[in-house]
Amino acid sequence: MVDAAFGPEQGQRPNLADPRAAYLELVRRKRMYGGILLLVFIALMASGWRLAEDRNAGGFLDGLHQIFAFPAEVLSEAWEKRALLPAIFWDHIPALVETINIAAVATLLGALAAMSLSLLATRGLARWPRLIPLFRRTMDALRAIPEIVIALVLIYILGGGPVPAVIAIALHTGGALGKLFSEVAENADLKPVEGLASVGANWSQRMWLGVIPQVAPNWLSYALLRFEINVRASAILGFVGEGGIGHDLKLAMQWGQGRYDEVVAIFALLFVTIVVIDQVSDRYRQKLVKGN
């Protein structure tokens, strides 16, 4: 017998059989659930494979040996015209600048919206606590709809061009950054906020002077990371008529053989740009968060 307050009675040993049996039972249960999930995953993969194979124009396995045929054709033509690549790079610099501008403006607008939504949706900081679920569901809705879906809708309203792309990316960015900003704001120290409230500061002043100085480094880090993502998104949206280097890439690929050198040049230019942005933003994010 074991006394809860003083431990096992003198001359008796604690009974370890029950905890060991409970542990073994827990392990068996986890293994069983893991096996069931594995079987469900395999069944879903197999059914999805069969469905895709039935709906595909040709068999996947039948065309698997040709997977490198198109890339080889593109690269061979680009190699033959390699002397023209520097001029092609230069010709597409304006489109690349437009793509970066779309991403930058969309990131700025989305980050500003995310700042407001995150503070209004954070427990302990919200101006209207009863409306926290409303602001959280708003961020969920903005985050759930892909940029390309929003852009396709806006094309019918505003027509093609960079403006629908900016709006589409900014809306999605607001929802994505809003959640991240809110999680950072929840860990902020509330003592400065309470001190400002004690001297009569309003809600905006408490947020601006008491919360934002604490969370600004992490917020800027997340915004830089989102800018990298938005550069890729703005290039992808070019395929649906939103301008930028993605639109040039779409035209070159639609033209087909004879302009594959342009396809390779655009891919290389976009790859180098994303790598440079990634390296620069990673360096500044490390400085913001860790102070290195």
Automatic annotation (TrEMBL):
It holds the Pfam family BPD_transp_1. It comes from the Bacteria. Residues 96-281 form the ABC transmembrane type-1 domain. It is found in: Cell membrane. PROSITE patterns: ABC_TM1. The chain crosses the membrane at residues 32-52, 100-126, 147-171, 263-280. Its main location: membrane. Keywords: Cell membrane, Membrane, Transmembrane, Transmembrane helix, Transport. It is a multi-pass membrane protein. InterPro entries: MetI-like (IPR000515), MetI-like_sf (IPR035906), PhnE/PtxC (IPR005769). Gene3D superfamilies: MetI-like. NCBIfam families: PhnE. Belongs to the binding-protein-dependent transport system permease family. This is Phosphonate ABC transporter, permease protein PhnE. The gene is phnE.
